[in-house]
Amino acid sequence: MSGSVAAIAVERLSVAFGDRLVLEDVSFTVSPGALVGVLGPNGAGKTTLLRALLGEVTADGRLTLAAPVAYVPQVSDVQAAFPIDAQGVVVMGLYPRLGWWRRPSRDDRRRALALLDQVGMADRARSPFGELSGGQRQRVLLARALAQEGRVMLLDEPLSGVDTRSRALMLEVLRQQCAEDRTVLMTTHDLAEAARVCDRMLLLNRRLIAAGTTQEIFTEEVLRRAYGADVLMLDGRVGALDDPHHHTTTERRRWNG
Amino acid sequence: MSLTIVSGMLDAFDPPFMQRALIAGLLLAVPLGLIGTWVMLRSLAFFSHAVGVGTFPGVVVGLGVPAIGPVVGALAAAGVLTGAVVGLERDERVRGGAVTGLALSTAMALGAVLLTTTFGLATPVEAILFGSLLAIADADVIRSAVVALVTVVVVGLCAQRLQSATFDRSWSGPAGARPRAVEAVLLGLIAGTVVVALPVVGSLLVSGLLVLPAATARLLITDVFPMLAVSVGLCAAEVVLGLAVARELDAPPGAVICAAAGLVFAAAVLFDRVRPRGRAT
Fold it and tell me: Which of B44, B90, B167, B277 would best serve as a mutation to test chain A binding (most A beta carbons within 10 A)?
């Protein structure tokens, strides 16, 4: 922390859904300008941690975040068939500043277009959101979060199921955000990607198993504490097996109502 | 030929009761089109049908007990049904339309039992279910105007919140759109619109007029805000056409208006399938 004010400070956070404790006694701090990956197996409480930080679930403990907070939900949470184009989605990120009566101005739409350009989507500004690929949709949702101009940006599985180009563009944008002293915290299943791009990582499995750098997290002992037996050793390198159907399952549940 | 048809349609609106029906219908097109758009986009068509049918026992009791009256009876029944469905839908074991279907059939059954065993009503049952040109009073016109005004103000204030809460509920909460409050307001507006539209379209067909113009607009338009305006316009045109034909055929207005709306929707489906630029997505 080197004496600076934390962008995110979590102290003894616990969240329960009914009798089930989803997060237990989680504490950590994140410095401004850091890119932090939240890792852990399915059901570890990664999404719940984000929702607790957003104030969307009832939680015990103390949470402090630098306001405003921007958010990128899982792309499967979005109703893709809704009649809206990519630019309209980004303009949505400006709504909180418009109040009740004001409608988006030409300047607002120009600003949205510039943000789409930043994520390499300016040429699809007028395309219906539902016609975009998974990676393109994710980039549009990132542009909407950029429009929120948060001091802290929370992203839920932004790299899941996206193409290589989208992934590279998104990571470049996130890096740029951090360079501007904004703090980025994202959940991910991709340990290799997290190791490559994140400054720090939080390893969750209901409790905070470990927090630290790649070297501190990526040891067989630490990973086994989070992933149990699903840890793979290859040529002395450590990896964790995860359920690749996680998102398909989520989507299917949603369609079945 | 076309002039004869237009002149015939205009003649249909000469009697004062037809003018009342026309004004009430045009005023109702505003909330039906505006609310209908969100009903369709939020997959609330079945729910809105249940609210319409759910007013049936309330109208029967209201007509049978003059101190209550059909409007208060319908409003109370719509409120009870909305509260029951919203409350029970939280139970995952019966989620997914089961509660709505159950509430709908129970309300219909209750209305039929009350009608046949308890209240001998002067009003024919078809008038309650499908509307009646003769049943539209000045008070209905005033109520339609009030609901139209309230809907314009509320949708005007909440349109951006409704849009974000419908497109992406999990984002809209943290962004300050208060999706739960927005949903509660929408459910209230559905109940109010349904109750006020009952004399014109009837309890069984009111959901048709909520859904059909909006669904037609959805096939033609790719952005939600113009869709709201097109939905209102289509609804108004279908009301005018339906009322004129209902008068000509001496048929219940709700049935003819919904049949007109259904035909327009079918035409939009055909247009959508054959147009070279592809579908509105």
Answer: B167
Residue A90: which pLDDT band, with cuts at 50, 70 and 90? very high
Contacts of A50 in chain B (CB under 8 A): none
The DSSP-derived string for B196-250 is: HHHHHH-TTTHHHHHHHHHHHHHHH-SSHHHHHHHHHHHHHHHHHHHHHHHHHHT
Cβ-based contacts under 8 A for chains A and B: 78
Dihedral sign for Cα A242, B170, B230, B196, please: positive
Q: What is the pTM of this model?
A: 0.86
CATH number at residue B44: 1.10.3470.10
Which chain B residue has its CA at the smallest distance from A100's CA?
B157
User: Which domain does B146 fall in, by range?
Assistant: 7-272
Across A18-25, average pLDDT = 92
B96 closest CB neighbour out of A56, A96, A257: A257
pLDDT at A250: 34
Q: Is it the case that residue B95 has pLDDT exceeding 80?
A: no
- Domain count along chain B: 1
Q: Is residue B226 part of a domain?
A: yes
> Are A82 and B41 inside 8 Å of each other by CB?
yes
Residue B133 resides in a domain: yes
Asked if A95 reaches chain B (Cβ–Cβ under 8 Å), the answer is yes
